[in-house]
Design brief:
The structure holds two protein chains of two kinds. Chain A has twelve helices and two strands, in the order αααββααααααααα. Chain A is mostly helical. In chain A, helix 4 runs parallel beside helix 7, helix 4 runs antiparallel to helix 9 and helix 9 packs antiparallel against helix 12. Chain B has one domain: Rossmann fold. The longest helix of chain B is centred in the C-terminal third of the chain and has 14 residues. The chains are: A mainly alpha, B alpha/beta.
């Protein structure tokens, strides 16, 4: 109030514009710098042979990343496959069935806390329980189960939010027609919540692709072609770490990073396209 | 005229707050019964006790009796699914599902397993005709229901209710989100439907109650103050409070 007595609204308006614009531009510049830096160094290294030959190992970091790509795909597919049923199930439970009481609040608080725990702690848990105690050793299965623990809170909460965003009128409309609660959830609520749930799953894929710390201690660093889920493996992000820290092939690390970035961009594009198609189908228009 | 629904000494509570006090009412078959009253008077709450929609709100409870024909609907062992099939409901905000027009109408019959005994295509057409929507949508049944106008959506919701072959249709301010022309269409439709169904409508609009209904009940603070033939309620109300309300002195 005092402030506005000395500075004209026109000037505060200008100052605000300058501030907001520069904040936006700086953010975009930082992002672009990182991506351009990686791409410029990475793209020249990428070719057919880089994508189709396995790494040769050694200090020189020779070879490509074929086995790394395969390990990554195995790991992500297995993780999402295990994750989806309990994650979405728990989300449905919290949104539709859980009574609003102390226990539910404690569970929800626990889930939110888990979502904020550093991934290396999940890694240590996976190492102690899966790798050591259960003798799964360093394997794609150990890595996937660890990732599932890490990602469950995210998927549960995004599912819950997506379900809660479905207007109450839809539930009441279905119940009033004589549908049971489960029929209402299965045929009315879930279809309406599906775009949100799919977004949650894609979010998990993205995080799984980028995750390094918790895999470092559960999946191993094997660079060969995995032939079973009990084989160890190495993901793209782990490979970047090893290339950068243990070889002289920094440009190969950048090339791998380029592949990772492109994969994430493609996944995001597919998600956007899917939810666009879905909106057209469901609403007949874009909201 | 037979009575279709009877409430006896009906009390309703949201937690400790009493929303309905000792409501006694007899709703006639093949009639339109309008429930009027200011916001928060309990008219919608009462409507929702008739198909037990209040069951889904945690912390509520009912005392007293509601009879549908001669059976109490709050007794133990009553099949709520079957009750809601017999007593359909249309809501204030048109709430078509995110599905095609056809699938919206077919939803109820499919959930109830009716599609095993009846031809679903015929049932959908019959319901849309009864709801006076068929001519407008017959060529595009696959289109998303959300592309329809508000008035069409509300008639679709009525068709959806008719498809499960109910006996009573409850309408909770069905026209309050619609423009006057769409409102007129719904009112004409109600006149046709009352030949076969008992209709109970909650409305904020007193002209609407006077225009469409045969009987009117006036609610105030959870009590049914006065109930009788619409023409009498609006021309010779017995209670001072009814008179004040319909002449616009409050509410």
């Amino acid at each position: 109030m005092l402030w506005s007595r000395f500075v004209a609204p026109r000037n505060t308006q200008r100052a605000a514009m300058v501030f907001v614009w520069s904040a936006g531009i700086i953010t975009i510049l930082i992002l672009l710098t990182i991506i351009v830096y990686v791409l410029v160094q990475g793209i020249p290294e990428i070719g057919w042979s880089f994508l189709t030959t396995p790494p040769k190992g050694g200090l020189a970091g020779e070879g490509g990343i074929s086995t790394i790509i395969v390990s990554t795909i195995y790991l992500i597919a297995l993780t999402i496959g295990i994750l989806v049923v309990p994650g979405i199930g728990a989300g449905i439970y919290l949104a539709e069935y859980a009574p609003n009481n102390r226990l539910t609040r404690i569970i929800r608080y626990g889930i939110d806390t888990l979502a904020g725990i550093p991934s290396i702690i999940f890694g240590m848990f996976g190492f102690a329980l899966l790798v050591t105690a259960l003798h799964l050793n360093f394997s794609i299965l150990s890595g996937a189960l660890t990732l599932v623990c890490l990602l469950l809170p995210t998927l549960i909460r995004t599912t819950e939010e997506a379900i809660k965003a479905v207007p109450r009128g839809h539930r009441e409309g279905a119940l009033a027609l004589g549908a049971t609660k489960w029929q209402t959830i299965r045929h009315v609520v879930l279809p309406a919540a599906l775009p949100g749930i799919i977004t949650g799953i894609i979010l998990c894929v993205g995080r799984a692709l980028g995750e390094t710390a918790c895999l470092y201690v559960t999946i191993g660093s094997y660079t060969g072609m995995p032939t079973s889920l009990l084989d160890p493996g190495r993901t793209l992000s782990l490979h970047i770490y090893y290339l950068a820290m243990e070889t002289n092939a920094f440009e190969k690390a950048m090339a791998t990073a380029t592949v990772l970035i492109v994969a994430i961009i493609v996944i995001n594009a597919i998600t956007n396209w899917l939810s666009y198609r879905f909106q057209i189908k469901m609403r007949g228009r874009l909201s | 005229m037979n009575s279709k629904i009877q409430a006896k000494n009906l009390n309703f509570y949201y937690g400790k707050t009493q929303a309905l006090k000792d409501v006694n009412i007899e709703i006639k078959d093949r009639n339109i019964t309008a429930l009027i009253g200011p916001s928060g008077c309990g008219k919608s709450t009462f409507l929702r006790t008739l198909n037990r929609m209040n069951d889904i709100i945690p912390g509520t409870h009912v005392e007293g009796v509601v009879m549908l024909d001669d059976k109490s609907i709050y007794e133990k062992g009553v099949d709520v699914v079957n009750l809601r099939k017999r007593v359909g409901m249309v809501f204030q905000q048109p709430n078509p599902f995110h599905k095609s027009i056809f699938d919206n109408v077919a939803f109820g019959p499919k959930m109830l397993g009716m599609h095993r005994s009846v031809n679903i295509d015929e049932l959908v057409e019959k319901s849309l005709r009864k709801a006076a929507l068929w001519d407008e949508v017959k060529d595009e049944l696959k289109r998303s229901a959300l592309t329809l106008s508000g008035g069409q959506q509300q008639r679709l919701c009525i068709a959806r209710v008719l498809a499960v072959e109910p006996e009573v249709i409850l309408m909770d301010e069905p026209c309050s989100a619609l423009d006057p022309l769409a409102t007129l269409k719904i009112e004409e439709l109600m006149q046709k439907l009352k030949e076969n169904y008992a209709i109970v409508i909650v409305t904020h609009n007193m002209q609407q109650a006077a225009r469409v209904s045969d009987c009117t009940g006036f609610f105030l603070l959870g009590e049914l103050i006065e109930y009788g033939r619409t023409i009498e309620i609006f021309s010779r109300p017995k209670d001072r409070r009814t008179d004040d309300y319909i002449t616009g002195r409050f509410g």
